[in-house]
Amino acid sequence: MNTWRLEIEYDGTRYYGWRIQHDSKTIQGELVRVARDLFSAKLEIGAAEATDPGAHAYRQIAHLKVSELKEDVKPGQIMEGFNELLPYDINILKVQNTADDFHAGHDAKARQYLYKISRRRSAFSKNFVWWVKESLNTKKMQSAAKMLVGRHDFTSFGFSDEEAYPKKQELSVKKAEIFEEDDLICFRILADEFLPKMVRVIVGKIAEVGCGNIADTAFERILRFPSDTPRKFAAPAAGLFLEKVFY
Fold first, then answer.
1. Strand 90-97 vs strand 170-181: parallel, antiparallel, or unpaired?
2. Which long-range contacts (CB under 8 A, 24 or more apart) does 80-86 make?
3. Which of 97, 127, 152 is the C-terminal boundary of a domain?
4. Does residue 87 sit in the same domain as residue 185?
5. Running DSSP on this structure, what letter comes out for residue 237?
């Protein structure tokens, strides 16, 4: 087995998330399609994080495993081959040789996401931000974000399409912060792992705190006493970026 570590950036606007879907275009699907053109052998491509439909990545990490090679292939050749055939909104940043047992998902120790909220309507950034028309109090949002740090049951924030109430989900958040950049309000969160749509549900609730729709004390209660109420709404995927993966 030949294994490489891939660093990938992508604009997820046109894709139905990372995972291969039979009837939709996905990031993994495009990578596998190109890999089959480059290699005639059995292969596997897996990621550190299965990003949501419409979400983006600054640095997604993936593994590429190929069962047999007819000739030695250098990482630079693989990167060049992928980038020659991939669509314009997916780009391989780096390819490295790695151990045969490397798994991008199982070996990852933590993931970091960035979410961008825009204070204004934009002609150019609508695919990469969530425009919130209401005035937002960033100090209240910062207060709510700080409450996330530590080990909590994030059942309330793990969106599920199923009727059944999900199992208890305790996760460790190492960092959660709100900061401003020009017309943007940004939310950054670092955790060992994330539940489906978790970051977007959190952002939606923090935005409610910022708008004054709920108090920060109510946000704290949601953390302490999980329910399915917060999962009714998730912020749009357009503003979400997988920023880093740690090993």
1. unpaired
2. 81/34, 81/38, 82/6, 82/31, 82/34, 82/35, 82/38, 85/34, 85/37, 85/38, 86/30, 86/31, 86/34
3. 97
4. no
5. G
Report which of 16, 7, 5, 29 is spatially closest to residue 87, judged by C-alpha positions. Answer: 29
> How many domains does one find in the chain?
2
Q: What is the pLDDT of residues 75-119, one digit of tens each?
A: 999 999 999 999 999 999 999 999 999 999 999 999 999 999 999
Active site residue 72: no
Rounded to a whole number of angstroms, the CA Rg of the chain reads 19
Print the domain residue range for 10. 2-97
Catalytic residue among 23, 52, 107, 216: 52
CA 150, 156, 159, 161 torsion: positive or negative? positive
Give CA–CA dist 131/112, Å, rounded: 22
Tell me if 32 is assigned to some domain: yes
CA–CA separation, 128 vs 41, rounded Å? 37
The per-residue pLDDT for range 14-32, each reduced to its tens digit, is 999 999 998 999 999 999 9
pTM: 0.93
Are 204 and 233 in contact by the 8 Å Cβ rule? The answer is yes
Which token pair is 134?
């209401």
Q: Residue 90 in contact with residue 32, Cβ under 8 Å?
A: no
